Amino acid sequence: MSLLRAEGLSKEFGGVHAVQALEFAIQPGAVFSIIGPNGAGKTTLLNLITGIYRPSAGRIWLEERELTGLAPHRFAAAGIGRTFQNLQIFFNMSALENVMAGRYLHERCGLAAAMLRLPGLARAERACRDEALELLALVGLERYTDEASEGMPYGALKRLEIARALAARPRLLLLDEPAAGLNPTETQDIDRLIQRVAARGVTVVLVEHNMRLVMGVSDRVLVLDYGRKLAEGDAESVRRDPRVIEAYLGAEARYA
Amino acid sequence: MLARLGAARRGGLLALALAVALLPLALGNQYLYDVAILVGLNAIVCVGLNLLIGYAGQISLGHAGFFALGGYGSAILAVRYGWPPLAALPVSVGSVTLLAFLVGRPILRLKGHYLAMATLGLGVIITVVLATEDRFTGGPDGMSVPPLALFGRALAGERAWYWLVGALLLACVWLALNLVESPRGRALRALHGSEVAAEMIGIDSARHKLAVFVLSAGLAAAAGGLTAHYSGFITPSQGSFLRSIELVTMVVFGGMASTFGAVVGAAVLTTLPQLLTPLKDYEMVVFGAVMMFTMIFMPRGIVPTLAALFKPRTRP
Fold first, then answer.
1. Inter-chain contact A82–B215, Cβ cutoff 8 Å?
2. Separation of alpha carbons A184 and A186, rounded Å
3. Cβ(B149)–Cβ(B83) below 8 Å
4. Who wins on pLDDT, B307 or A46?
5. What pLDDT was estimated at residue A111?
6. A192, CA 20 to 30 Å: which among A30, A110, A240, B15?
7. Is the pLDDT of residue B193 over 60?
8. A61, A196, A86: which is closest to A140 by C-alpha?
9. CB-based contact (8 Å) between B200 and chain A?
10. Predicted local confidence at residue A255, as pLDDT
11. Which string of b and e fits A120-152 if b means at least 16 CB within 10 Å?
12. How many CB atoms lie within 10 A of CB A45?
């Protein structure tokens, strides 16, 4: 059974069809990439499958559970996590606190319990901290643990967002251009990180412009153009698809 | 770092407890006690308001309204309906908290300037109602409020009030510090940092904003009720827009997202006008100047700015 399924998904902004009648299913355990030229509707699609946008038409399921129309935090609680193309770091916190905040769903505590610092909270906080440290190590940011996130370099913040999203233990992790603005070495780090995340059993949805990264890491690729599905298949078949080459990859791909 | 934070918390709380315990040695007369009590009552409001503004990043320009309502509710129940003040006070605080819950739901959907304007409007409505409903409130001239009585004995005298307010302030600071360092506190700061990212880690932003709004309104109402019973008199000016601005200035000057900052801000800006009584008419000018000075020279507020100066450098 597919993990995430969309049926007839559409989003209109005042007559502009950003995403139109999209159908797809994401299998568990796969790295599923969404590519397409600028303005093809990739980020709109991510916003639809995280509840930030309400679809104009169509429905979304996570396994049997329909999520259409729910608030974003309910999508998160159902097991969908994401990072952002434009960083959305909590700049008022340290690196460690950003990741600890990501554990929110697993740290439920009432207002009264929090204010009275009831016993049990301290133990839970230590466990939370340990897990956050482990995730910082996974993304290679141990040395920034207590740093104010404000002062961290761009590449590190990209990975911090991934660690924070992983802290919520999502079943589906959406990465919105994780390699944008990174140099080749940093991009390789992200490549390895995506593979490590997938190896942990997290299904990854990757929106990315870097074709080398996409083609290397993806099990399946969805190509969008003007908000519609242009092609879908494994990396190799998409790479060879003449429609994709014409619409998107262009001349560059023929020499690749 | 958590251990260090915990130590800083305990150290700060201990320092505050010592300050409360030792201050009477320096309070030579009743007037000074009076100022200290007002500092404590304002500090309670500011500790709550700082949770809302400093930590959750939601601006309220109407908190004086809740402060005044807390006082009036208790006064009206005691004077017009003959309730014992000790019963009137908690019922009044509970009612204001409920009111904050009801108006907070629609208001907190708004962000930034819109939220500020909506809370400002709320404060204005409360003041106008208090000034107009003179059958209950005595109108613009205000009304007198009976003292709190404990087991038939009136809580009278500055000393008794000083210890009561001091103990309550310490309790509020302790509760606020605990909250900030809990998962709930992290959720509030996350909202401040990025609301969309907070939602994407499962934080129900509407619920958390409402909870902290209601909490801060409840603290304001409690302090307002105590202030009314302490001073024995209340006027609608307690809920005025200028009074709301004063409270926000205390929080901003002391330091956003610093609980001790809120206490220091309340202490400095409650004491300052007393020192400037010759300039009475220009009191608000001083508040305006303090706000501008803070924003330009230490936007993080005085306590975080000083703390950063004395913090050992840990950057690699």
1. no
2. 5
3. no
4. A46
5. 87
6. A240
7. yes
8. A196
9. yes
10. 47
11. ebeebbeebbebbeebbebbebeebbebebeeb
12. 26
Rg (CA), chain A: 19
User: A70: exposed, middle or buried (C-beta count within 10 Å: 0-12, 13-18, 19+)?
Assistant: middle
Question: Of A165, A176, A167, A170, whose CA–CA distance to A203 is shortest?
Answer: A170
Residues of A within 8 A of B179 (CB-CB) are 111, 114-115
Residue A222: CB atoms within 10 A of its CB come to 23
Q: Find residue B153's DSSP bridge partners.
A: B150
pLDDT per residue as tens digits for the range B265-311:
999 999 988 888 777 677 778 888 888 888 888 888 888 888 888 76
Residue with tokens 């069809």, as numbered in its chain: A17
Chain A positions in Cβ-Cβ contact with residue B200 (cut-off 8 Å): 50, 72-73, 75-76, 81-82, 88, 165
pLDDT at A248: 65
> What region does B155 belong to: left with phi over 0, alpha with psi -120 to 50, or beta?
beta
Between the alpha carbon of residue B138 and those of residues A132, A220, B111, B237, the distances in Å are 57, 74, 36, 13
Cβ(B248)–Cβ(B61) under 8 Å?
Answer: yes
The pLDDT value given to residue B131: 93
A199 inside 8 A of chain B by CB? no
Provide the terminal-to-terminal Cα distance of chain B, rounded to the nearest Å.
15
Distance CA B270, CA B260 (A): 15
Distance from C-alpha of B157 to C-alpha of B165, rounded to nearest angstrom: 13
Q: The whole model's pTM is what?
A: 0.91
Q: How many CB atoms lie within 10 A of CB B276?
A: 13
* pLDDT tens digits, B89-144: 999 999 999 999 999 999 988 877 888 899 999 999 999 999 999 999 999 999 99
Tell me the average pLDDT of chain A: 91
Tokens of B269: 């800006």
Q: Sorting pLDDT into bands at 50, 70 and 90, what band is A98?
A: very high
> Is residue A36 scored above 80 in pLDDT?
yes
Report yes or no: A81 and B209 within 8 Å, Cβ to Cβ.
no
pLDDT at residue A169 above 80?
yes
Angle, in degrees to the nearest 10, between helices B112-132 and B85-107:
140
> What is the residue type of B122?
L
Name the H helices within B232-258: 241-254
Q: Distance between CA B279 and CA A234 in Å, rounded? A: 78
User: Which of A115, A162, A173, A175 to mutate to probe the B interface, most B CBs <10 Å?
Assistant: A115
Q: Which residue has the tokens 């290679």?
A: A140
